Amino acid sequence: MDVVLLSRIQFAMTVGFHFLFPPISIGLAWLLVIIEGLGWRRKDEAYITLGKFFGKILALTFAVGVATGIVMEFQFGTNWAEYSKFVGDIFGAPLAAEGVFAFFLESGFLGLYLFGRNKVSKGVHFFSIIMVAVGATISAFWIIVAASWMQTPAGYIINNGRAELVNFWAAVFNPSTVIRFFHTVDAALITGAFMVAGVSSYLILKGKEIELAKKSMKIAVIFGLIVSLLELFPLGHESGREVAKDQPAKFAAIQGLYSTQDGAPLAVFAVPVMPPPELKAKIEIPRLLSWLAFGDPNAKVLGIDQFPQEDLPPLFLTFVSYHNMVVLGMLFILIMLIAFYYLLKNKLWDKKKLLRIFVWAIPFPLFACELGWIAAEVGRQPWIVYNVMRTKDAVSANVPAGDVIFSIILFAFIYLFIGSLYVYLLFKEIKHGPEMLTVKEVHE
Amino acid sequence: MDLNVIWFLLVGVLIIGYAILDGFDLGVGVLYLFVKDENEKRIYLNSIGPIWDGNEVWLLTGGGALFAAFPVVYATVFSGFYLAFMLLLASLIFRAISFEFRGKVSSQGWKKLWDLLFAIGSLLPSILFGIAIGNILRGLPINMQGQYLGSFIDLLNPYSILVGLVSLSLFTLHGALYLTLKTGDEIRNKILPWISKLWIIFILLYAMASFFTMFEAPYLFEGVLNNFLFWILFILMLASVIMMPVFIKSGKYFMAFLSSSIMIAAMIGLSALSLFPRLVPSRISLDFSLTIYNSSSSQNTLMTMLIIALIGMPLVIAYTFFIYRVFKGKVVLTKESY
Description:
heterodimer; A: mainly alpha; 8 strands; globular; B: two-stranded antiparallel ribbon; about 75% helix
């Protein structure tokens, strides 16, 4: 088998598995900032109990995130050596910065948060969860800087057969960094909100620590509604506009626009069939795509017919992943809106069906995250650095296919094993529920 | 001093930081193999519980810094050591999660499984660290184009395995010294006899490795014996090796741990000094070696990275100290413990 394809499979598998965990960690960390903050300000031990409970889920998730993240740091060198040599002058810096500014912060303060509750003052303890959340978010920033540079490279020249840094800030704040950062972090916040909401709903349904669970449910629904709405507008919208402007071929692929049009319609639902590429069973809204992308209902949007065949990403996968992500995003808003409505009417606690939906909804923001990344990264193909370096030229020249097959099998087994144990332990933790403090602990 | 030299030093500092910090928690993991009692096991785990993750970040940051400052080395060595790296990553994965997973289910089989994975996950990186250094010291088969021509089996040569045993014994000794700071008399009295044995084993292995280095990589000694710095590091290392048992005898455990930390720094310093300005010597011809000049990033990037390091590292060191201070002293098991 082809080493390029094998290394792509390995990267997709390892990064796809890894990214199940950071969104939960980032989202939970920020929700814990709210929960611990309320506990600290109101001196209410209910929030401390909640903090300890969700802190355990954070610790479990964080551990798997760290474990699977180590692989990512080294995989550029092991599998993509030609890429590493070509972009090292630019791409290494954000990875190093992530280590210096983020990893030390989050790992150090997570230890303090989890084990230091009785060793430091309440203020310092609250500060430690803030630092965990800040660290996790800074980590997201630097890794998105690196990922965005591959999509919309800037601040460099090609010199000595490699990309050399000319302007650090231009490379860091390349055209897609800022919007991708907010879009991704907000997705993590949605993931965290649905995790807390789902777990709280479960506790309410099972009649465990109901009063506590209602408190966390309230926080999750209010927080979740805000972040779900923000993800649609302005973040999702701006993200789409950025792609339309900077990566028109990718935009055409994810939107399923196969021929260039003035006043292009938005395909809300369709099944892409090929070849030649064509949308079947489509539901379209006339002129909406032109308007969304360029603010003008008659604007010309380039279709894939404008680009050479060898520069096009896979059409089916990009279209399907992008559209399903959008559908999920809409559903999140809908669920949160309904819950918020009942929360205001103080009827949420009786809506068993809705609470059950929340329990089942826990993994769906993760599906949306994965779909979004598939649309973004598969949409970047056949380039590893957009319009600069092709993926096929980036792979390690001297790693044999057999070695890569071995590592794919190795990681597939490890991840399957760890993934199932994670789910098992998560369920166990949730079923166990929060532990009320004993009288002695309250007074400590 | 130019930027390339500064980055040679900084990468060295990161490797030393990693070896000192993750070195002791890897060592604790190796010693964990020999512990039977559940309570004792938990004390071992919790002695490093809140801090091991921060220690491992030195490895991640070292990898990132190497990528940023010397991308050719990062690309060549990591793809060249492909299978070794995959094994290292697999063991680090299991090690990382065994802390969290082990205590979550109260069955004996479950605990045994994670005990085993934790110990292997500590043992393998401890050996691989030395094997990697051994291979770098004796040089890699790198051709004129800077491509690595060897295979996985080539990495497992006797000399490098010997250096692997040096790092294993070193980290285990270092971890044992760390444990004396975290345990009460009962457990400490079990560890103290191990320390004297490990001390002897380490010295014998290190002496053997140094002896064989003269034959495997004679170029390392060229010129360096006239270097003033070489002798300072050498004396520093010797002094800390000798002082270790003295401190232990007089019950100054922290000083003993500090000595082994200084010893690690001096040891790696000596290797780095002999390599300089090469990063990865070529066995085919020393002229094909990857050096701090032919494998570095541009001056602009090295400068940018230096600024990042100067802003970031003082912060890191400050709160690392703070966190270690919070958790200093003997381990007391509580409900939050692993």
